[in-house]
Design a protein that fits this description.
The protein is 24% helix and 28% strand. It starts with a helix and ends with a strand. With 125 residues, it is of the alpha/beta class.
Length: 125
């Protein structure tokens, strides 16, 4: 009987931990925002992203934008048909499970460092 009660308590605690994790929100580029002043490929290093977390892209909407592309688009700095393009200067994008690739749609800006890949893992148990 005690084992059963202990198991039920453990299951309830695990379920509560799963429900209590709120998605995190990250400001891309930290204080610099989505800008050429830093290499965006290095910005995600040391951070752990989970599916459901949010990335906030703040940038000068007269100079930059953000596109979600596939790996080929990321590697070649090109936007394929059907890519999602954001241009408000203050975009909040929720991460899905797996790798999401972001670039600026101007090839020279992208090649200058405004691109990154974010790997969002499953939320912790």
């Amino acid at each position: 009987m005690r084992k059963t009660i202990t198991m039920v308590i453990l299951l309830v605690l695990q379920f509560e931990a799963i429900l209590s994790r709120q998605p995190a929100t990250y400001m891309v580029g930290d204080d610099f925002g989505w800008d050429l002043v830093i290499d965006m490929e290095t910005w995600p290093r040391g951070k752990t992203f989970y599916a459901g977390d949010f990335l906030v892209f703040k940038y000068d909407d007269q100079r930059f934008d953000v596109a979600i592309v596939d790996r080929a688009g990321h590697d070649s700095c090109s936007v394929s048909p059907g890519a999602q393009v954001f241009d408000s200067g203050n975009d909040k994008i929720q991460l899905v499970f797996g790798v999401t690739y972001f670039i600026d749609t101007e090839a020279d800006v992208c090649a200058g460092g405004m691109k990154m890949a974010i790997n969002a893992t499953a939320p912790p148990p």
